[in-house]
Structure formats: structure tokens, C-alpha cells
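Bumping with the actual sequence this time:
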Amino acid sequence: MKTKQLILCGLIALLSACATATPYQPADQGYGYSEQKLESNRYRVSFVGSSKTSRETVQNYLIYRAAELTLANGYDYFVLAGRDAAAEPGTRSGSRTGVSFGLGSFGGSTGFGLGIGTGIGGGGEDFRAQADVLMYQGDKPEDRSDALSAAEVKANLEAGIRRPN
């Protein structure tokens, strides 16, 4: 019986490792970043992280994406408008893992059964952040505390960006 318990513990540990935070990536099955161009210098950007992704990480990924878009479109700094961050109890709340096992005997024989299920479902909260990003060229104005240098933001947040394997 000890061997079966060790196998079961190993399987549980392996499956638990599969549930990880959302990496910085384009939206995939609802998780990651997305953007929509609204005007020549204005995008609506959002990032959704699974329940395993912290609110701070989701907000940093949103700001990082805003910096990337700003630079990619030939602008130097940006301002976030209409910013919204929320925890959403939802039906896509990360992966869930269930393990069941049974031991029984019938007609003098003993049997052991193991069931493992994984899926996407309720429980926990997704974190979502969204903002309109207004992009500008030139030096960041000193009198606008809400203006962010795209190059500086990108450089300062880069170390914390975890990309998919």
C-alpha cells in the first residue's frame, strides 16, 4: 500500500505544478494581453490573469504592454486614461485538478483505482486590468505626473516579465 500512496502523492505534486500564473503573452483562451486601436494615438489595452496571477503582476503587464505599443507606433511617452483593475469571480478561474482513488475487494481479489481530472472551471478569481493608452511624441512634460516614458517603463519592468516557455 505504501507504493500506491507514494505514486498518488507524486501525481498530486505533478498536477499541482501545472497550475501556474499567466505569462506575458497575447491573449490565449482568455488569458494574456489584448488591444484595440481606437484612434491613431489611442489604444484600449487589457490584460487578464488567472487566479494564480497576482493583481500587481496583471497591472505591471498592462503598463508594460502600453510601453511596447507606444514604442512600436513611433511615440515616446504615454498616459493611461480610464484605468480599471478588478478581481472577477468567473467561470474561467484557472485550471483545477481533482484526484480520486478507491480500494476494494471482490471475490477474494483486491483492486485499486485512481482517477485524475483537470479542467477549467469556477473557484478563485481572475484579475483583469484595462486602460486607454494615449501616446505622444517628444519629451515627457515635467508638469504631467501621469505621463510615463515608454522606454523607461519598458526597461524598468523587463526583469519582472515572465514569458511563456
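The C-alpha cells above came from a reply further down the thread. The longest helix spans residues 55-72.
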